[in-house]
Amino acid sequence: MRPLSKSSKLQNVCYDIRGPVLDRARKMEEEGHRIIKLNIGNPAPFGFDAPEEILQDVIRNMDSASGYTDSKGLFAARKAIMHYTQQKNIRGVTVDDIIIGNGVSELIVLAMQALLNNGDQMLVPMPDYPLWTAAVTLAGGVAQHYLCDEQTGWLPDLKDIESKITAETRGIVIINPNNPTGALYPDDILLGIIDIARRHGLVVFADEIYDKVLYDGNKHTSIASLADDVLFVTFNGLSKNYRTCGYRAGWLAISGEKRHAKDYIEGLNMLASMRLCANVPGQLAIQTALGGYQSIDDLVAPSGRLCKQRDLAHKLLTEIPGVTCVKPKASLYLFPRLDPKVYPIEDDQQFILDLLQEEKVLLVQGTGFNWKASDHFRVVFLPNVDDLTEAITRIARFLENYRKKHSTMTVIEGKNTGKTAQSASA
Q1: Are strands 337-338 and 323-324 parallel, antiparallel or unpaired?
Q2: CA–CA separation, 206 vs 186, rounded Å?
Q3: Contacts of 285 (CB under 8 A, 6+ apart)
Q4: What is the pLDDT of residue 410?
Q5: Maximum CA extent, the chain
Q6: What SS3 string covers 353-374?
Q7: Is 108 helix (H, G, I), strand (E, B) or coil?
Q8: Which among 400, 363, 332 is positioned nearest to 24, based on CA atoms?
Q9: Distance between CA atoms of residues 255 and 338, nearest Å
Q10: Could you give the CA distance from residue 299 to residue 295 in angstroms, rounded to a whole number?
Q11: What are φ and ψ of residue 147, in 5° steps?
Q12: Which of 288, 223, 244, 246 is closest to 57 using CA atoms?
């Protein structure tokens, strides 16, 4: 029989957060190894439970969750989201401007499918959350990656954004707070992005799923709150702020210049209708979550577990020779840099695989987030202090062995080069 091949649309689609290295980790677990997983921002396995009032409200209303809802979602849930957009100072969002999805991931794919024709371009940050690049590619588009500059705290480089715009560019994606870097964008950067979008007629897609996971008293500004004359599609959900990843309750809200986007909005509604509706039990959690006690504030406070773990992870990583890291202002991640002079890495996926096999720690390589070089990796700091300390101790040991190995190789290569030079002169 002829081999059955996957669609050519998937040719350049990758999602290394759950890629080949994770497959190897699963096999190692089947062989009896205990793996410390720092590869995915999933709070539940690390003891971060959903707030009890959310759980109880879902249970109490489960008997009403058997049927389809409106394709955009439950009215009460969308109304609560509308009120939340008002709290974020986003003007002009009505209940009909909100679509609830099976997590933000589904809605990102839906939003790209509704907009992009083959060959259309989308500006996507580098590094990015790789689903954005994958969704653009799957929709037939081309992801043009603009630089987020580590030297400025991973802020978007506005000049680089401007230089990447062509006649085929349809929109710009911002991830704020950022995954994987933990950066939080100030208003002047957001206003600069709006100005670019305004002058070039671009849609702004704002991924704000970590907007409550903020440290050191930092505040988050929704980019859609800063203008009315640009079309904004803002994504948010319960997964991170309320530790309910498995509920798959996310949403998008449309605001700004909607008059000239009626056809695109119709496309969004059409695709929302085709999947009938988002899962109803997850929708039941939204109103209680947004209107209830915000326990995330306790976790990110200076005495809170997340803040303490961020501080510890940053301290331990930056104590390793040749490792630097911008301290994250938000989110659940660090994105440390390995000095290429100390760690001459050619294939960072193989580097991460070697770490897994030698030290039983699972990370994701920087190129998995569409970073341009093999000199970064992402660390999730969700494990408790003891496990986090153990994991980074293992990483430090692996890096120490790597330094010794490659410094020895450099000496040998230097001696060989010297011998070759002497032979040539003879």
Answers
A1: antiparallel
A2: 14
A3: 50, 54, 57, 58, 238, 242, 244, 247, 249
A4: 54
A5: 90
A6: HHHHHHHCEECEEHHHHCCCCC
A7: helix
A8: 363
A9: 41
A10: 7
A11: -80, 130
A12: 288
